[in-house]
């Protein structure tokens, strides 16, 4: 049974990446209105490593009382089983899903002075020089790693991977020209593209994003086989008391209906989940489908590396 008056103390929201990346950004956007709905502060706790699996694993072991929750994504709860043989959690069974927070299209970006004018010439450059170019990612199993591997496999290139503890630090090095490119979630790239500090070659969605109207889709740019969107969602350790679970689900729902949250997410290119996509049932189905989708795709890509 839940404690009387839940919550009666601050709640920890574990972000499994370094501060400044897309998952961290989304967490910091939804946390304040969730806290308002719950009547207690929500503290962001960044636990990076293992492509997000370190923080998720640690959070999964917390007491299921509603005072530790976490934000995971397509990498930690979709791609990870195909990439980690010793993964210490089952994305579909270890957690109580709270709800989807945002959809985040993936964008192919490079340092601003990369010598290619469009996606076709970008791919040709990678194919010619191979490991000469460096590709950043936030650790094995992260969105940037999973989608990057898929991209490399499709265009048949083998760049040199440079691993970070989050795409926040990776983006800093891309801006300074220390690495050449990465595939990243749109919420992390929009401010830098608007500032002109990096360049984008394509967005991996069927339609252009209102946040980046000048960036062509991969289909328009000649690579229709690379279409992939990421997502971020809130989870809790398994076996939450039913009333605590209901409070958290309601708080996230209220946060997503908050005008400020919607404005900030949309401005960054995020997609607000529709009513039918919200809540624990829809999220559970999404996780199961993502594991089924990414396991064969990434297993094949791993074999090619």
TrEMBL record:
Gene3D superfamilies: Bordetella uptake gene, domain 1, Periplasmic binding protein-like II
Domain of life: Bacteria
Similarity field: Belongs to the UPF0065 (bug) family.
Name this polypeptide is given: Tripartite tricarboxylate transporter substrate binding protein BugD
Organism: Methylobacterium brachythecii
Lineage: Bacteria, Pseudomonadati, Pseudomonadota, Alphaproteobacteria, Hyphomicrobiales
């Amino acid at each position: 049974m839940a404690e009387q008056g839940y919550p009666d103390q601050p709640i920890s929201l574990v972000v499994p990446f370094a501060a400044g990346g897309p998952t961290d950004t989304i967490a910091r956007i939804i946390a304040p209105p969730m806290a308002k709905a719950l009547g207690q502060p929500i503290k962001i706790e960044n636990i990076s490593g293992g492509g997000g699996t370190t923080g998720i694993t640690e959070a999964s072991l917390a007491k299921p009382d509603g005072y530790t929750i976490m934000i995971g994504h397509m990498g930690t709860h979709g791609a990870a089983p195909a990439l980690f043989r010793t993964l210490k959690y089952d994305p579909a069974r270890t957690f109580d899903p709270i709800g989807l927070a945002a959809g985040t299209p993936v964008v192919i970006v490079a340092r601003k002075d990369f010598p290619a004018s469009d996606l076709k010439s970008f791919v040709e450059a990678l194919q010619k020089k191979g490991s000469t170019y460096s590709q950043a990612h936030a650790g094995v199993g992260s969105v940037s790693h999973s989608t990057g591997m898929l991209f490399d496999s499709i265009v048949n290139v083998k760049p040199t991977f440079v691993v970070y503890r989050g795409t926040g630090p990776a983006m800093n090095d891309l801006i300074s020209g220390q690495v050449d490119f990465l595939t990243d979630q749109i919420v992390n790239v929009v401010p830098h593209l608007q500032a002109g500090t990096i360049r984008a070659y394509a967005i991996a969605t069927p339609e252009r994003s209102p946040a980046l109207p000048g960036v062509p889709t991969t289909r328009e740019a000649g690579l229709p086989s690379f279409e992939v969107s990421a997502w971020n969602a809130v989870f809790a350790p398994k076996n939450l008391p039913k009333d605590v679970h209901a409070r958290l689900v309601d708080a996230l729902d209220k946060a997503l209906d908050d005008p400020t949250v919607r404005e900030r997410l949309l401005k960054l290119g995020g997609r607000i989940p529709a009513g039918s996509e919200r809540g624990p049932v829809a999220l559970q189905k999404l996780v199961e489908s993502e594991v089924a989708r990414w396991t064969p795709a990434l297993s094949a890509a791993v074999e090619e590396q």
